[in-house]
Amino acid sequence: MEKDKVPHVVILPLPLSGHVKPMLTLAELLCDAGFLITFVNSDYNHDRLERVMDIPAFYNRSPGFRFVSISDGLPLDEPRLGPIIFQLFFNTRTVSKPLFRELLISLRQSTKRSPPTCIIADGLMCFAIDVAEELGVPIITFPTHGSHGMWTIMHTSNLIEEGEVPFQEESDMDKPITSIPGMESLLRRRDLPGNCRLEVENPLMEFIISEASAMKRASTLILNTFEELEAPIIVQLGSFFDKVYTIGPLHALLKTRIKDSSQSVSSCGSLRKEDSSCMEWLNSQPLKSVIYVSFGSVIELSRDQLIEFWHGLVNSRKPFLWVVTQDLVEGNEELGQISEELEQWTKEKGYMVSWAPQEEVLAHPSVGGFLTHSGWNSTLESIFEGVPMICWPQVADQQVNGRCVSKLWRVGFDMKDTCDRFIIEKMVRDLMEDKREEIIRSTNEIARMARGSVKENGSSHCNLERLIEDLRLMSLTN
Ligand code: UDP
């Protein structure tokens, strides 16, 4: 292949770690296929990445890979969690768009590397579609949600037109939602994405609606899911996009294709330092006895919620491993006096870390359940390892994911809209013991399908091959 025909893919994630991680994984897989990669981080995330990985050593192993960074418009010392994230969304259009345009022009003019032949941009970074169209570079959209979450978000404006949104939180939250094709008997009001609880005039609603609409201007869609899990909705998505590539679970696909994935950059994709001491603690626990608890990277709990979870876990009398990030409690509120019983039980039967090697934790034989906020990465990782879940979704696609987990795939229970120590205790007991029978067969079956999808000749494996081939062809015609 001529030098100037080497595929050069520019990858642009939404600058939040739950979006950066799957994008980095895809970037690594494409780099492994011989492509040049330019990965566009925010300055904030790049700084965090540099703290957890040796980037020059990574460049030595992967000479085709380069990071660049642009501002996300927020101060560098401001943690990206809670409501500030909405500001980050709005900044993408005002701050990131002109910077990305400049970057793309400079990449095209550079004599060091061949010019970009394709952009892969997050589904919430649709300003990139304007830039790509203006500069004549093909673009693919990669919303990092699952298909059901994505399909629901794409129907936000239909929900408003049909009068199903907005609704008051005090109204009948179990009322079925009927205007999303293919999901008529699945969702209730409470299962709609968090933003559907806002006023229609809220700027976040406007942002979601316009991003969902703009996304369709990219003719090609990548999804981090697998056909066997979400086939009917993937088919529906095919009516909006010329090509749909389902290539998940990406973290597992990477492990099947890259020999030493412990050296991979995406293993640092959460941008936080992992505390691996919990693996030793897990080694000392009985088989399938531990409930793993994590609420991901952006959710904050009130002090009262944290205390309810703590009591519920302790009262369930099951050993737990809990990720308590430094900024988990809203406004860093002091916890105050903690009862001796909580302290004592946690010392004897619990383990807390500020960040866990989650993929390894979920794969550990001692882990029997996952209490999660139902972020899509966590959901897929748990599905892959055959670990049933208790869902406590809060924002975005998490509510939809929780509903799919409990009602559609039957791989867990959904606890949404409650946070009460008695319910938490009961849910943990149900998951680990009393009602485990109800879900364990489907959990194992879906895990088997997930594993099959990333093996040679599996659906996601083949779809990635197709994507690589199409990106190559694109670079020849571009
Ligand atoms: N994660 C991790 N260690 C932790 C908690 C989470 O490595 O202690 C990773 C997890 O494996 C997942 C990601 O962080 O890949 C969280 O993504 P998700 O979409 O579930 O939630 P978000 O953080 O975006 O809300």
UniProtKB/TrEMBL annotation:
Family: Belongs to the UDP-glycosyltransferase family.
EC number: 2.4.1.-
Recorded GO MF terms: 7-deoxyloganetic acid glucosyltransferase activity; quercetin 3-O-glucosyltransferase activity; quercetin 7-O-glucosyltransferase activity
Keyword Transferase (UniProt): yes
Short name of any one Pfam family annotated for the protein: UDPGT
CDD domains, A to Z: GT1_Gtf-like
Keywords tagged on the record: Glycosyltransferase, Transferase
Name this protein carries in UniProt: Glycosyltransferase
Organism field: Quercus lobata (Valley oak)
PANTHER family documented for this protein: GLUCOSYL/GLUCURONOSYL TRANSFERASES, GLYCOSYLTRANSFERASE
Gene name for this UniProt entry: LOC115952765
